[in-house]
Amino acid sequence: MDWAPTEMAKLGWGLVGGGEGSFFGPVHRMAAALDGRFELAAGAFSSDPANNRRSGHALGLAAGRIYDSFAEMARAEAARLDLVTIATPNHLHFAAAKAFLEAGIAVLCEKPMTLDLAEAEALRDLVARSGRPFVLAHTYTGYPMVRRARDLAASGALGTIHVVQVEYAQDWLAGAAFSKQAAWRIDPARSGAGGGLGDIGTHAFNLAVYVTGLTPRALCADIDHFGEGRVLDDNAHCLLRFDGGAKGMLWCSQVAIGRKNALTLRVYGSEGGLEWSQEDPERLTLSQLGGPTTILQKTDGRLPVGHPEGFIEALGQLYRDLAQVLTGGSPAAPLPGAEDGVAGLRFVEAAVRSAGGWVDL
Amino acid sequence: MDWAPTEMAKLGWGLVGGGEGSFFGPVHRMAAALDGRFELAAGAFSSDPANNRRSGHALGLAAGRIYDSFAEMARAEAARLDLVTIATPNHLHFAAAKAFLEAGIAVLCEKPMTLDLAEAEALRDLVARSGRPFVLAHTYTGYPMVRRARDLAASGALGTIHVVQVEYAQDWLAGAAFSKQAAWRIDPARSGAGGGLGDIGTHAFNLAVYVTGLTPRALCADIDHFGEGRVLDDNAHCLLRFDGGAKGMLWCSQVAIGRKNALTLRVYGSEGGLEWSQEDPERLTLSQLGGPTTILQKTDGRLPVGHPEGFIEALGQLYRDLAQVLTGGSPAAPLPGAEDGVAGLRFVEAAVRSAGGWVDL
Amino acid sequence: MDWAPTEMAKLGWGLVGGGEGSFFGPVHRMAAALDGRFELAAGAFSSDPANNRRSGHALGLAAGRIYDSFAEMARAEAARLDLVTIATPNHLHFAAAKAFLEAGIAVLCEKPMTLDLAEAEALRDLVARSGRPFVLAHTYTGYPMVRRARDLAASGALGTIHVVQVEYAQDWLAGAAFSKQAAWRIDPARSGAGGGLGDIGTHAFNLAVYVTGLTPRALCADIDHFGEGRVLDDNAHCLLRFDGGAKGMLWCSQVAIGRKNALTLRVYGSEGGLEWSQEDPERLTLSQLGGPTTILQKTDGRLPVGHPEGFIEALGQLYRDLAQVLTGGSPAAPLPGAEDGVAGLRFVEAAVRSAGGWVDL
Amino acid sequence: MDWAPTEMAKLGWGLVGGGEGSFFGPVHRMAAALDGRFELAAGAFSSDPANNRRSGHALGLAAGRIYDSFAEMARAEAARLDLVTIATPNHLHFAAAKAFLEAGIAVLCEKPMTLDLAEAEALRDLVARSGRPFVLAHTYTGYPMVRRARDLAASGALGTIHVVQVEYAQDWLAGAAFSKQAAWRIDPARSGAGGGLGDIGTHAFNLAVYVTGLTPRALCADIDHFGEGRVLDDNAHCLLRFDGGAKGMLWCSQVAIGRKNALTLRVYGSEGGLEWSQEDPERLTLSQLGGPTTILQKTDGRLPVGHPEGFIEALGQLYRDLAQVLTGGSPAAPLPGAEDGVAGLRFVEAAVRSAGGWVDL
User: Fold this and answer.
1) List of chain C residues whose C-beta atoms are within 8 Å of the C-beta of residue D317
2) Which chains touch B (3 or more CB pairs under 8 A)?
C-alpha cells in the first residue's frame, strides 16, 4: 500500500473508442482515475456521431474536445495530450496508434495490437521511430501476484522451467444470443483472423511469456468454432514449444459453460511450481521440490492483504506505471509493449495457419 | 455493468483525516474517483500541520483550501462542499461530523461512528435535525453480492431465519510490532471502549443486520486482549439473540494468525442457507432445503462476471449511491446511516459491559 | 503408507446394534475390515428379533452366535471375543458396555458414551476396574491430519493457544421429514438430554480438546430447537473458557441448510494458527506469525498423498490402533477413552443446564 | 448408503503381485475387504521367493496356497478361485491374465492392461473366448461422482459435447530420488513404451471416454522426460479429436511440483459444463447454459453426504460390482474392460509414435 500521489499537475489523457455501450471504456476511465494522475481531456468515443457526442458530454468534456474521428483528434491535440488510450475494435488500432504516435502522444492500446501481423510489425517500427511510450493493455500483468510470480520465476525459485499450462476460458459466446460487445469480436473484418485467439488467447499467451520469461518457438493448434453462425474460432487448443526445451499447452475458449473469465497459469520447473488464477487474483500458490505448498498473498498492493483488489486496480497499475514513465520515472515492473503486440499477432496467425501442424513463432 | 456517468458537474468533496501514512485516506480517494462524480476540493488531512500541508499539496489542492482543523474547514467551506468524508481516528468523528452537518454538508463517516454511545445518539439526533445525508462507511454493504444476499433474505429465499454466524478475523495485531495505523486503534482515548470490537466487530455486526434484516435484542460476550501491553480487546466472542427467536454468534479477532481480513457471514433459515466471505467477494453460496447448493455470481457489478471487483469498488458504490442521493436520486440499495452507527456503539458498549453476562441491545 | 498386516490370527469381534437400516453398523464393519485384523464372530444387531436374525445371517454368522440381547451375548461370548463394538442408540450404551467389560471383553463404544453424566462416571469407574481397553468412537481423531494437528499443537508450533473455534454443522434435520435414523436421535429417552449436542456437539468438543490439549473450564450456551415437533436441541451456540485463559466458541447445528457434515476446527495461538475441516480431511492449513500459510498434506496415511482417504479409513485407524493394543502394542496416537466420554456428557449436561449462563465443566 | 451384504458365502480371491513394499497390494486388499464379499484364499505376491512367503504368511494364508509363480497358482487354483487380481508390473499382466482366464477364473487387472498393444489385442480376444469377467482397474470409475458425471453426460445435460479437458498431474518423479515403486515404472522392459503415459495417462484417457461416451479418433502428442536419467516420458501433452467433432486436451505429468494426484476432468457441451477432480472427489460442478453453477454431492455412496469417501472406496466399488457379476447380478454402472485396455494401449503407443504429428486412434 502506498500513500502515493505527487504534487505534479495532472496528465492530459484522451480516449479513442469506449463510448456508450462499450465494455472497456468505463474500465479505462475507472482505472485511469484511481491514482488521480490523469484527467480526461479529449476523446473520439464512437464511430456513431450521436453516441460520440453524448459520451463526451456525459464525461464532462467541452464540445471542442469531442472529436468525430481519431484522425481529427490527433491533429488537434498534438501539443496537448500526454496519453491516449485506444479502445476501439481491433481493425482501428493500427491507424489510431499511428496517428497519435506521429502526433507525439504516448499510447495505451487494447489488444490484440492490430488486425494482423503485418500491421503489428509496422506499428512496432513506428513506435521505435516515435520514441514515445507505447503500452499494450495486457491488464493481467498489472496484478500484484502476477508480478510476484514473474519475480519468483526470474529469481530461480522454480529452477529450470519445464512445463507451462495456460488457459483462458469463458462462456459468454456459448449459445446463440449475442450482445453488441460480441458483434465485432466475431466479425473477421473488425476482429482479424482470430476470434477468441485474439480476444483472450493473446492474453493467455502474453501471461505465460511475461511470467516465465521463456521464448516461444513453435505451436501446433487445433481451432474450432462451436457456436452457430460463426466463422472465427471460439475454442482453440495449442501445444507450445519454448526455446530451451520447455513445453506447454494453451487453451482458450469462449464456449466453456460455467467458466466466466478463467485465466489460469501454472508453471512447473525443476525446483518448484506455481499457480495463479485471475478469478482469485490475490493468491499465488508456490510449491517447492520436497517442500510444502505455500499460499502467497500480496505484500505491496494498493490495499493491505485481505482487502481484495481486482481488475480495475490491475489496469490502474498500468496507468500508474505509465504516469511514472511520462514524468521521467520508471514503471514498477516491465510493461507489455509493441514487441509483445507483434508476438501476440504472430501467435494468432500461427494458430490459425497451423491446422493441426507445427508452425514456428 | 453500466456505462454510467451523467452530464452533471462534479460534486465538491472534502476529506478530513486521511493524510500521509493513513490507510483509509487513499482508499477513500480511489473509491471516490472511480465514477468521476466527486472532485476533491478541500481537506484537513492531519493533526500534524506539516503532514496536512504536504498531503494537501500532493493532492493538488490550493493552499487556501487546506485547513489546519476541521472546524476551520467547516466554517470556510459551508457553502461550497457537497460531501465531506471523515476518516480520522474515532474520537474526532463526533465533533467533525457535527461541524459539517451544521454547515449544511453531507457526511460520509468512518466507523465506529463515534467514541461512545452517548455521542452516537447525539449525532443521530443532529443528523435528523440537519436533514443532510449521513452515511456510515460500512464498506462491505457496497459489495454486489452482499446486496444480493440482502435481497435474497428479504425475498424469503431463506424462509424464517434461525441462525446467524458472523465473524471477522485478522492477524495484524498478533505479535508485538505495531504500525502507526495500529497506534490509535489500541488507545482507548482515541478508539473508544472497544478495540477490535469497534474496528471490525461493528462491521461484522452491521453486516449481519444489513443482510438479515433482523433486530438484535441481546448479547453475551467474552472479550480478551491476548497481545502484550494492550488494554483494549483484540479478540471477542459473542452470543447473539434476535427478535423473533433467531440466534447467532459473532467472533472478531485481530490475533488470528493466518486470517487476513476474513469477514464471513453465514445465515440459515427454515428454507435455505447462504454464505458470503469478504476475501472471495464475488461469489455467494445459496443452498435450499432439499435442493442443491448453487454458486451465485454478480450480474450487476461495474464489470462483467469473472472480472474481480474488490474493496475499492465496494466503497466506490457508497460514493456512487451518495452521488445519486446528493443529486436528487435514490441509492441502489439502502445505505448504512446514523441509526446503524448508534446500533454499532450500542453493540460495542454492550460487549464490553457484558463480562460474560447477557446485556440488552 | 504401510504395507502392514501381521501374522497373527484374526481377533474375534462382536457387534451390538448396527443391524439392517442403521447408519453406523455398515461403517463399523467396513472400518474393521480394512486391515483384516478383526473377524466378525458374534452379534446382537437389533432389538427387533427379525431384523437381528436377518442381519446376522446376512453377515455370515452361524445362528448360534446371533443373540437376541447383548446380555445374553456377553454371557455366552465371555471367553471368546476380543472386542465388541456398541453401536446402539445412546440409552443402551451403559448397560451394554458394562456387560461386555464385566465379561472381560474390550469395548469400542459409540458416542455420546452414555445417556447421562451419572452413567458416564459409573462407566468410567467400571472401565478402570475392568482393566480392559475401552475406546470411544470419536472417529475424527483417526484422521491423519487431525493427529498431525495435535502433534503440531503439542510441539509448540502455535505457541500459547489463545482462541479455539470449533463447529459442526449439518442440515439433515432441517425440514419436517425424518428417517428412521433420526427417530431415536430426537427422542430424549433414547438420546439423552442433548440432541445435536450429544450427536455431534460431543465430537466437536472432543476434537477441540484432542487437538489443543487444553482443559475446558466453563461454558455458556444458548440452545434451541428450530425444527418442528422437537424437544431436543438441533442448534447450540457455546462460549468456552479453558484453563490458562484461552477462549473458544462451539457451534453445532443440524438445521444449517447447505452444510452436510461440516466439522471444522480452527486454533490460534501466540505463534501460529491452524485450520482443519472434516469435509476436506487430507489438508491442514498452518500459518505462522509473520510467515506464510502452508498447506500440509498427509505423509503417513494408508495411501500416498493425493489418494483421498475418508471417514471409513479414519474409523479404521481406531480399529487398527485397538488391534495393536489388544495384541500388546501401542496405538499410533492417543485414543479417546472413558474419561473423554465423561467430559462429553459433562459438556452436554452443562450446555443444557446453562440456559445462557456460565456453568463449570 | 446401503446396508448391503448378502447371505452368500464369500467369494474366493487370489492376488498376484502386491507383496511387501508394493503400493497397490494393500489397496486391493482393503478395497476387497470393504464389503466382506471376498476372502483372500491364495496368492503369488512377489518374484522374490522370500518376500512372497513372508507376504502370504502375513496375510494369513496357509503355505500350500502361497505360490512361487502365477503359472503354478493358476494350475493349482483352477477349480477354486472366483477372482484373481493382477497387481504386478505391466510386463507380467498379459501372461498372468492369460493363465487365470484359461483356468476359468475372472480377472481384475491393473492398468495399463499389457506391455504393448499387440498383447492387449491378444488379451482382449482371450477374454472374449474365455467368457470370464475381466475388469481393468481404472479405479476412478468407481467414484460415485464420476458415475454421476457419466449419467449426466448420457442424459444430455451437457447437450452436444464440444470440449474435453483432462489432466493427471503428479510430482513424485520430480527430482532425482526414487522409491522402489518408481523403479519398474521408469524401466521400458517392465513398464512398456509409456512411462507416465501408461501409468497415469491411461487413467486420464479412460476417464474422459468413460464420462463423455465419446470415441477418440486421433491424437497429436508432444512427450518429454524432464527427470534425469530417464528414458520414458514423465510429461506428455496431447491434442485429442473425437468422432463427431469434439476436441480435447490431455496432459499427464509426474514432474509437476506441488501436484500430488491431480486427475481432473472438465467437459463442455452446447448446454452445459461439468468439472470433477480426484482430490476432491465428493463434489461435481455442473453449470448450465444461462443458468447457475451447482455443486452436486453424492446421494448414493456408501456413507451419507459429508462423510468423505476416497480412493479405497472407489476401488471397493469395482470389487462390489464384480461380486455382483460373479454371483449372477449386474454392476451398478458399466465397468472398464478389455476393450478399454486395448484403447489405453493404443493411446500410449499413438502418443509415443506421434512425435508431434497426428496419429489415428
Assistant:
1) none
2) A, C, D
Question: E strands along chain A, which residues?
Answer: 11-17, 38-44, 83-87, 106-109, 134-136, 161-169, 216-224, 235-242, 247-253, 262-269, 272-277, 283-288, 293-297, 358-360
User: Among all chains, which residue has been given the C-alpha cell 495456460?
Assistant: A166
Other Cβ atoms closer than 10 A to D178:
15
- pLDDT band at residue A263 using 50, 70 and 90 as cut-offs: very high
Give the nearest chain A residue to B25 (CA atoms).
Answer: A3
B273 closest CB neighbour out of C239, C256, C286: C256
D224: nearest CA partner in chain A: A247
How many Å separate Cα A92 from the centre of its chain?
A: 16
Q: Which domains does chain D have, with CATH numbers?
A: 11-139 (3.40.50.720), 143-303+336-360 (3.30.360.10)
Q: Complex ipTM, two decimals?
A: 0.95
Q: Which of A171, A256, A268 sits opposite D256 (nearest CB)?
A: A268
Helix (H, G, I), strand (E, B) or coil at B240: strand
pLDDT in tens, C63-86: 999 999 999 999 999 989 999 999
Q: Which residue has the cell 476387497?
A: D32
Q: Which of residues 143-162 of B touch C (CB under 8 A)?
A: 162
From A122, A7, A92, A40, select the one nearest A319 (Cα to Cα).
A40
In the numeric block, the cell 476475501 is attached to B279
Question: Do C294 and A294 make contact, defined as CB atoms within 8 angstroms?
Answer: yes
| Cell numbers found for residue B20 | 500521509
What's the CA gap between C353 and C359, in Å, rounded? Answer: 8
Does pLDDT of C9 surpass 80?
no
Residues contacting A172, CB < 8 A, separation 6+: A182, A254, A260, B304
Say whether pLDDT at A5 is over 90: no
Binary contact (A258, D272; C-beta < 8 A): yes
Alpha-carbon Rg of chain C, whole angstroms? 20
Q: Tell whether A299 lies on the interface with C, counting CB pairs under 8 A.
A: no
Nearest to residue A163, comparing CAs of A240, A267, A89?
A267
Is there a cis peptide before residue C112, judged by omega within 30 degrees of 0?
yes
Q: Which of A292, A282, A205 is nearest to A251 (CA)?
A: A205
Q: Give residue-wise pLDDT tens across range B48-64.
A: 999 999 999 999 999 99
pLDDT of B1 strictly over 70: no
How many alpha carbons lie under 13 Å from residue D313 in its C-beta half-sphere?
A: 27
Q: Chain A contacts of B310, Cβ < 8 Å?
A: 303, 307-310, 313
Contact across the interface for B293 and D292, Cβ inside 8 Å: no
Exposed/middle/buried for A207, CB within 10 Å: 0-12, 13-18, 19+?
buried
D300: cell is 448414493
> Is-contact C254 C171, C-beta < 8 A?
yes
CB count in 10 Å sphere of residue B231: 10
pLDDT digits (tens, 9 = 90+) for D220-265: 999 999 988 789 999 999 999 999 999 999 999 999 999 999 999 9
DSSP C114-175: SSSHHHHHHHHHHHHHH---EEE--GGGGSHHHHHHHHHHHHTTT-SEEEEEEEEE--TTSS
Task: Calculate the CA dihedral of residues B89, B90, B95, B99 and round it to 10 degrees.
Answer: 70
Alpha-carbon distance of C216 to C201, in angstroms, equals 14
Please, where are the H alpha helices in B37-170?
A: 49-58, 70-77, 93-102, 117-130, 144-154
On the question of a cis peptide bond just before residue D112, with omega within 30 degrees of 0, the verdict is: yes
**Whether the predicted pLDDT of D9 surpasses 80:** no
The alpha-carbon gap from C292 to the nearest alpha carbon of chain A, in Å, equals 7
How many alpha carbons fall within 13 Å on the CB side of residue B220? 21
Q: β-strand A83-87 against A106-109: which pairing, if any?
A: parallel
Q: Does C299 contact chain A (CB < 8 Å)?
A: no
